[in-house]
Protein 1
Amino acid sequence: MGSKTLALWIHGKMKEDEDSGDFNSASPPPGPPLENLMLRTPTADMRWIMASMLQKDGHEAVEIIKKKMTKVDEVVIVNQNDMVTQDYKSNRIRVFVDEEGRVSKVPKIG
């Protein structure tokens, strides 16, 4: 299974969870509590949260990230075609959105 095929499969499974109406039933893998996370090394919980943002409204994704990842100081929406600086900030997450304002890439720390 190629990486694009796998990404589409994961997105489909996450959509099924979302469509079930019970977001809490789609639990992330076990890991440390979110409030104790160090942002430099993304954990399975953090990667799951980020991946679950695909195709959500950008502003909704920002609110979810701020709520679930309290150690993040800066969550910014960036157009997927805009240039960004290459500096790395461990307390910043960029949410890339398409022309419709939907998250087009998995948000990344930095």
Protein 2
Amino acid sequence: MSNATRGLIDEVWDKYSQYSAHQLVGITHRDGPWKDMRGDLPKEADSDLLIAEEDMFNWFKHEYEAALAPRNEPVMHDIAAEFAALQVA
């Protein structure tokens, strides 16, 4: 794992480790591919529809890059290459 990836993981941990699993589901599932996949299903309805890994990757990549932009921080590593390496492992 690169230092940049480890730094990103540490930053995410620092920000979100205070939340319970239930709270994290609420935070993450209100946007992005989760919302898109559910379509017009009621909020309380269960769904077993699968979200494509590519859709998840693209959404998180966009969120990651958007988080860096206001701080004028460059993307320090090739997130696509690191994601591919994780899939192989």
Protein 3
Amino acid sequence: MAAALSDEDAPALHAADTRAAGAGLCDPAAVELLTTEGPAAVRALAALGAPFDRKTDGGFVLSLEAAHARARVARASAGDSEQVRQEVHQCKEAHRCQGFRESIA
């Protein structure tokens, strides 16, 4: 899950990367929502038990991937990504989230 989780990153930087990668096809409101609320969402999932990889200081292990200019992809070790997906699904069910869309991949 990509989010501005490090001290060297910010939602505005993530949004700029997303807009640049989207080449004019991104919905500005969706980009703003996802990049602004993304860090809190990842932290909330971690607090619920989603097994994101962590550094010894407790911070998230972040990868530099795709069109991101900074390392901001919080990941789970092999086999744990399914557990992260399950945590998202359980959170959605518990809070009866409206407008939640399952991954199509």
